[in-house]
## 1
Amino acid sequence: MTALAVKGFQAGYDPDLPIVKGVSFAVKKGEAVTVLGPNGAGKSTLIKAIAGQVACLGGQVTLGGDDITGVPSYALAKRGLGFVPQTENIFAQLTIRENLQIASELVEKRRRAGQIDKMFDMFPDLKLRPNDLAGTLSGGQRQMLAAARALLTDPPVLMLDEPSAGLSPKLVGQVFETLARVHAAGVTLILVEQNVRAALGLASRALVLVDGELAHDGPTDALQDSTTLGRLFLGNRTREVAR
Ligand SMILES: Nc1ncnc2c1ncn2[C@@H]1O[C@H](COP(=O)(O)OP(=O)(O)OP(=O)(O)O)[C@@H](O)[C@H]1O
Ligand SMILES: [Mg+2]
């Protein structure tokens, strides 16, 4: 069953200048897919546009079969698509608990406290210090709080933009262990990453985006060899998506 699909998708900041230039792919329920590609390829633009934060300029996005093209971000969280942007994904001046409380406002009132407890159980680092300011968390813990905020509504699909950015190798390991647990709990993951090794360890399938177009879509096994990935990043296409 398809969890999320995009078809002929175009997106960008200027209607005359699409950054994402006609991308099509489908993510199956329960899959973990990574989106790789060189800097400036349009990876963030692609997932922000799917998440309703950048204008869709053409094509279609479906979530569990429903058309969600152009639906704004706050409405998508309710409809089952969680999104963790790369930056500004928590409120540093509020406590950990307050960060979760704000996110829980998307959930029915009677379920809020239970959902917050569930997140504390899923992310034990947060449970240790619920009343500390989020700004005092380590980079990795901040990413966990950001993920907890996005998971509060129990979305079947979670998209994350570079959760490992700026983290030490040890913290990258912790964040990916956490994401593996989230995936094991049944959440479909779409993960934009620069840290190719970490991403290929978690995802079973990779999409490679080069200059706003899909250069590759296939199992991660085929990309463990860095020469193949290097060639793709330089603009070579694999046969399946060649035009
Ligand atoms: N807010 C914006 N307004 C206008 N252009 C933008 C904006 N954000 C990004 N761009 C442009 O869109 C293109 C793709 O950027 P994007 O951030 O999507 O790439 P990326 O693949 O995520 O790169 P990185 O790996 O560096 O994060 C770039 O040319 C960039 O300059
Ligand atoms: Mg980016």
## 2
Amino acid sequence: MNPYDETAPAPEERIVGAAAEGDDQAVEAALRPKDLGEFIGQEKVRQQLDLVLRAARQRGATADHVLLSGAPGLGKTTLSMIIAAEMNAPIRITSGPAIQHAGDLAAILSSLQEGEILFLDEIHRMSRPAEEMLYMAMEDFRVDVIVGKGPGATAIPLDLPPFTLVGATTRAGLLPPPLRDRFGFTAHMEFYGPRELERVVVRSAGLLDVEIDPAGAAEIAGRSRGTPRIANRLLRRVRDYAQVKADGVVTREIAATALGVYEVDGRGLDRLDRAVLEALLKLFGGGPVGLSTLAVAVGEERETVEEVAEPFLVREGLLARTPRGRVATPAAWAHLGLVPPQVAGPVPGADQAGSGQQGLFGS
Ligand SMILES: Nc1ncnc2c1ncn2[C@@H]1O[C@H](COP(=O)(O)OP(=O)(O)O)[C@@H](O)[C@H]1O
Ligand SMILES: [Mg+2]
């Protein structure tokens, strides 16, 4: 296994998983917006990037290095291709984990054409020696190629043509500051709002030749966890259902029923998310309860609950992580249609919430 691998455990393919899996990659190529005008949402990023690229074009220069940060499925790879298209430049695609040795990077860098876009996905997972080589390449368009080994090794400087590095990362915080500082422009991608996701769904439906009404698109958007990749995947599953069970037209009812079959609820929670929430509410009165106890209750590994289920539940304001354990928010009770116990004090993070059970279930 790659020592830089730190991806969250994925015990099974999730229909609401944000990483590309299964047939995603093949379909995604067809659904990718081709230029900035087609790219939906992320207004700030689009505006800023438009200026950066326009200015470079006017100067007849290569654009500054660009860092794209954000959760999986928000459009980083898509934007890198758009940058190449807007600059009318070729693009070379590689990733941090694919570059094991500095020599691998030297080979790529020295074969770049002038103005080429080098897309380095998962840039936070590059090895240290490669990273250090990249510093010089980004700043001075130069690499030192080491020839020989041991005390007799010599560094031969090699000039590179000017190029634009586009780095993508889900963890901007993990990038060493010297690397981060060498990017002229950093774009942070946010989760998409429901209106934007609706537009993503309608656009993709058009490209896939799926007939959909606005309410159907809204229904899929609402279950997509703020993530275009998930929206596109849910659309494909709904399309299957509409084709097999109905007349092919995606309405609100068809979308809701289809996604019910796949156990994705109205808010985008899947079976695991709901199991965690349900255990927290029904078995532990809303908490606080320790992570390990909660994991045992749903029959999953601790890491699975923590890294696969919880981030979205926290982001949705359904669950809070407190020093004394996991606590459900009022929204969690409402979402599962349950009534919180009378004594419940102010949640989240309230120390008295569920304190009667502390001795039994706390950790
Ligand atoms: N702003 C957007 N507008 C339309 N489609 C988008 C947008 N962002 C992402 N997508 C779609 O979502 C899918 C995943 O995008 P991708 O760029 O691969 O995400 P990332 O590289 O950040 O994981 C692609 O099929 C792409 O077409
Ligand atoms: Mg990507």
